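lol forgot to send this yesterday, sorry. struct tokens for the thing we talked abt
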């Protein structure tokens, strides 16, 4: 089993507090986040943005593997994962993760799109999200 981790430290209340996010690799080290970056569009990161980046990266890697297995070559994949945070009773829930991907490669467009659909369901981050995971595909 491969284990990676992220960590967070929070100080203060929800609206007046501040937090710091780090990753095991050190790529993120005490990066600030807070209510204002999550709900008010202020500069900085937030959990949904980080989940979106992880989802887009995981999907793109899974798709690359599937395309290679299908004989598609010279592949370029650009993916965004839009994570939807919705009010849910007294709190919030992530209920949607919408993948938008643009794929170029040497291969049949229908095969490339089919591979993307397989990656949508098969990537480990898609599997872990307790959310509806959807996908838009553009093949160029």
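and heres what i got for the seq, position by position
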């Amino acid at each position: 089993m491969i284990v990676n981790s992220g960590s967070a430290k929070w100080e203060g209340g929800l609206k007046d507090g501040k937090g710091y996010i780090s990753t095991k690799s050190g790529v993120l080290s005490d990066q600030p986040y807070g209510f204002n970056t999550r709900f008010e569009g202020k500069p900085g990161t937030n959990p949904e943005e980080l989940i979106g980046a992880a989802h887009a990266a995981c999907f793109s890697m899974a798709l690359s593997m599937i395309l290679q297995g299908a004989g598609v070559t010279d592949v370029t994949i650009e993916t965004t994962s839009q994570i939807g945070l919705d009010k849910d009773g007294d709190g919030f829930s992530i209920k949607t993760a919408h993948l938008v991907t643009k794929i170029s490669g040497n291969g049949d467009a229908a095969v490339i799109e089919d591979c993307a659909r397989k990656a949508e369901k098969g990537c480990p981050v898609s599997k872990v999200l307790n959310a509806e995971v959807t996908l838009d595909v553009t093949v160029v």
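DSSP finds four helices and six strands in the chain. anyway ping me if u want another try
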